[in-house]
Amino acid sequence: MTAQLSARMRVIRSSLFDLDLHLDLAPGERVAVMGPSGAGKSTLLAALAGFVRLDAGRIELDGDVIADASVRGGTARRGIHVAPMDRGVVLLGQEARLFPHLSARENVAFGPRARGHSRTESGHAADEWLDRVGLAGFGNRMPAQLSGGQQQRVAVARALAVEPRLVLLDEPLTALDIQTATEIRMLLADQLCSTAVVITHDPVDALAIADRLVVIERGRVTQYGSVREVMGHPATPFARALSDHVRIAGCIGDDG
User: For 130-151, how does the pLDDT look when each residue is reduced to its tens digit (9 = 90+)?
Assistant: First the structure.
């Protein structure tokens, strides 16, 4: 399932910082968001996921309003704010956070079951996704019996098995070793079909997973374009540092 995302938002975190930006994604588009520490990346994800309310603005998924700070009155005294579990949005972070008392198969089946699918349908979905992430035959293993990389694969399967409208990825490769991170990066590039926002500190992730790149600095968008456009023609010192990193890594040439 894919959805069109339209977000116009302002979130005030303190007297010294606020996030104020526009973000539009076409159905199925994957956008990487990069920026220095404290730029507002986590605040952006929290607003999209529904963990914080907007102070101004509006967020729509396929025309459905999931947040609107301008609506007041009646039951919407503080504006429209759809609860996180009702948005059709999933968040995958640095840690797998699997249910320790459930097997890999039960972890993946949990989402479809929670959304009203039968036990049989949910089990079939879990088996299919475990196969797609390279863990066929691992369904009966408990999380403690899986490596860190295998746990993250189960987490990816669990997130995508619910057919979310929007996937939010918050540095999902940070806690993994280089080889495992490379494997999960390729897995996401291959299996991630939903509209997605990817927060990452590594421009290699952006090149491998995303269609476009948004650079955020001090709560504002400072550059926006295809990943290669931004890397090839950086507009700020931070973007230039990203470009230098991928050139050193040999991911893009001097001509972008």
Answer: 999 999 999 999 999 999 999 9
In the DSSP assignment, the letter for residue 195 is E
The CA distance from 5 to 14, in Å, is 26
User: Mean pLDDT, to the nearest integer, of 11-27?
Assistant: 91
Is 125 within a domain? yes
Residue at 17 is within a domain: no
Q: Which of 150, 156, 230 is nearest to 193 (CA)?
A: 156
User: Are the C-beta atoms of 58 and 81 separated by less than 8 Å?
Assistant: no
CB count, 10 Å around CB of 218? 14
Q: What is the number of structural domains in the chain?
A: 1
Boundaries of domain holding 136: 99-163
In a domain, 49, yes or no: no
pTM of structure? 0.90
